[in-house]
Specification:
With 324 residues, the chain is mostly helical. It has 14 helices and four strands. The protein starts with 15 loop residues before the first helix and ends with a strand. Pfam families: SFXNs.
């Protein structure tokens, strides 16, 4: 059989459609329930295939499935197995439960605070799991980041609720969770990945050789992730309140109030099934940065780049992993 390049995506990542197909495949929620033994076997097969030493009779389908399990469960920088609740493939089941609860239980301040805490704890785990792992973070930094991001979410949520209770209609109050989530993402992700902003991330030439580090690259990658995460939750948290407001006008819907929360959870799940891969695909995972930008904003790192290139022509772009 024709050999796959096991370290490259199956679809063209220079196009949005190619990235969407890749992330639909990589974030498949079914990979979350695969056993640890199967994940380890997939990693072993990928390692063997990379060296051309896979067992005789191995089919292309087996290699592709092993690649899917490996990329869904292991960190691209370290190769370490990720916490199952922090994997992007867990975004649909995890996100639908938390977001559905936030949309349903928004009427009292204690409920708003509790579900924002749950959501930011989940987000913090996802952000840490999918960080650029070449920038290690201490336990103290993680603790401060988690507390700061969670506090930001709670203050935003409670502040919006208190203000909108006086100024806005009951319908607009349904958007308190989205306002809090959007604001908290702007705090949570940079805080959980602060070392990247402080020390920079490794950047590579077109042949994947490390040529320097860059804080500008870190800022670009993190800002793209923040935008993607907000887009990821936006349809479910902005369209579903309209649907619920309409449905709750019907007598039959008012008779089944205990089922409103499960209905919202399932609704969020339907949105996230499509929005997780779409949001991840908005920007290339292998993000690029112009060397002219590096020269302008980080002259010291540009000097290291020139030293690393030696007599070779300077590349027009350098590349880095933006995280998810």
């Amino acid at each position: 059989m024709d050999r796959l390049d096991i370290d490259k995506p199956l679809w063209d990542q220079s196009t949005f459609i190619g990235r969407v197909k890749h992330f639909f495949w990589m974030t498949d929620p079914r990979t979350c329930i695969v056993s640890e033994t199967s994940l380890d076997a997939a990693k072993e097969l990928v390692s063997q295939y990379r060296l051309g030493k896979e067992p005789p009779g191995t089919t292309r389908e087996q290699v592709v499935y092993a690649k899917q399990l490996y990329e869904s469960a292991f960190h691209p920088d370290t190769g370490d197995k990720q916490n199952v609740f922090g994997r992007m493939s867990f975004q649909v089941p995890g996100g639908m439960l938390v977001t559905g609860a936030m949309l349903q239980f928004y009427r009292t301040a204690p409920a708003v605070v509790f579900w924002q805490w749950v959501n930011q704890s989940f987000n913090a785990l996802v952000n840490y799991t999918n960080r650029n792992a070449k920038s290690p973070t201490t336990t103290t930094q993680l603790g401060v980041a988690y507390l700061s991001a969670t506090a930001a979410a709670m203050v935003t949520a409670v502040g919006c609720k208190a203000y909108w209770q006086r100024k806005a209609s009951p319908f607009l109050q349904r958007y308190v969770p989205f306002a809090a989530v959007a604001a908290a993402n702007c705090a949570n992700i940079p805080l959980m990945r602060q070392n990247e902003l402080i020390y920079g991330v490794d950047v590579y030439d077109e042949n994947d050789n490390i040529v320097t580090q860059s804080r500008v690259a870190a800022a670009k990658g993190i800002s793209q992730v923040v935008f993607s995460r907000i887009i990821m939750c936006a349809p479910g948290m902005t369209i579903l309140p309209i649907i619920m407001a309409r449905l709750e006008q019907y007598p039959w819907m008012q008779k089944i109030k205990p089922l409103h929360a499960p209905f919202q959870v399932m609704g969020v799940g339907c949105f996230l099934t499509f929005m997780v891969p779409v949001a991840c695909a908005l920007f290339p995972q292998r993000c690029s940065l112009k060397t002219s930008t590096l020269e302008w904003l980080e002259p010291e790192q540009f000097k290291k780049l020139k030293e690393a290139c030696g007599e070779k022509e300077l590349p027009r772009y350098v590349y880095f992993n933006k995280g998810l």
